[in-house]
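PT: before anyone asks, these are the final sequences, not the draft ones from last week. 512 residues across everything. Please model them as a single complex and drop the result in this thread when it's through.
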Amino acid sequence: MRLSTFIRSNLESILQEWEEFASTLEPLVNANKKELRDHAAAVLQVIAADLDTPQAEHESIAKSKGLGPQAEDDTPAETHAADRVAAGFTGEQVMAEYRALRSSVLRLWTCQVAVMSAGDIQDMVRFNEAIDQAQTESMARYAKMLREAQNLFLAILGHDVRTPLGAISMGAQVLLQDQTLPSKALKVGLRIFNSSKRMDAIVRDLLDFSTSHLGDGIPVDPHTVDLSEICHGVVEEAKTFHPDRKIDLTIEGNATGAWDEARMAQAFSNLISNAIQHGRPDSAIKVSLRGYLDEVVYEVRNEAEVIPPAKLRTLFDPVKRFAIRPPSERVASGTQNLGLGLYVVKQIIAAHEGEVSVNSSEDDGVVFSARLPRVTPHRRNDDQ
Amino acid sequence: MILIADDDSDFAENCSMMLESYGYDVSVALSGSEALASISGRQPDLLISDCCMPDISGVELSEQIKARPVGGRFPVLLMSGSLQCRVASGTSYDGFLRKPFLAEDLLLEVRKLLQKSAAAGHEYKGNE
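LR: through. Structure below.
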């Protein structure tokens, strides 16, 4: 009996066996049979129909990689994933369901096949490919739904934090512009204001990190801008908020090109903040912007202890940096900042098709360099 | 008069204090419906409204104000703490600030919109 015929004729017993396994999964312990079966029958019907359809070798290979043809409407496997997200299943549990479905079908079928023919083996291969395709569809939908939910959650969190932050920031600014207050009160007002700005930057970096880390990248909207103006603004702001630090700026050549103004300001500012935070407080921070024929290079240099090569390699990736940290250091990490700013810098520069690098030596100190291609045709929004 | 509509009373009051310190006449509404009631009592020269309020959003307020007959309209400056907040294209509003913002950016927008309002024949009646 062909495997497709077997599936259609024995749907009930296959589902019965699969159901017994699925009911052992934690979220479904108290679920009824109808809930358990929901889309499994539909998935099997689609697979049975697929087994009856002639298939070329390249289609077979594509399907085994989960790259089969995409249906316009939701497939049963995608609908199944959406229901499992709603029921509180983990990704591992959804995978386990498919494992059980594969096992149930093949075990019951092979019991009925005395001697396996070449056609039977071909059927079995195609069944496995079809299950792989269904599993891929389910997991892709599952991941997409979680990603969307996480983005929404973070957006709400960002809004919820920014609202009181706005009140704190505006309150501090009200105090700061009241010159009748004693200097001590004004100093406290300035500290509150600076802290609120830092918190705002952390929230912004955290949201950018989450968005780009989930695969969406940092969105940019490039238009013709002069990076030297942005650079001047960022350095002046840093000097205003850190009057105790010396920040030298050098600008050479033309720095006009197609970039996202707000994002470039964020990247420039993050690199200066990093130098302020990690550089020697008594040494100058040297910022430079140099325009060349094809690119503009932004550089921030500060004196600091030499960064070990292993740490340099993970400096732009906070997750890896934390992952490779020995357990003894992780406790101490709880009191350090996440260092999301450098990750965000890398993402912003990458979104503009540029590169950022870091070097550290006793002679040169720590040097961050961002190389930005001046013009990329498809980024010239202004010219369209 | 400048009307500030925001369900976060701390933010609204601090904004109000900031604008008052620059000589503006400011009134505060802590919800969209409170803002509408205030507008029907005394028409402001400018509305500064949070985008997201539980009853009537700033975007809805702006739409209502822009749909009023000439003479009953005035500039609307929207604010939001959400990075994702993009006011739908086609929505009528005159300015946007993302919270938290600098007082100087607020003052810049306020001056610009009141000038725009005055240029349109709707003389600002504040006391700056």
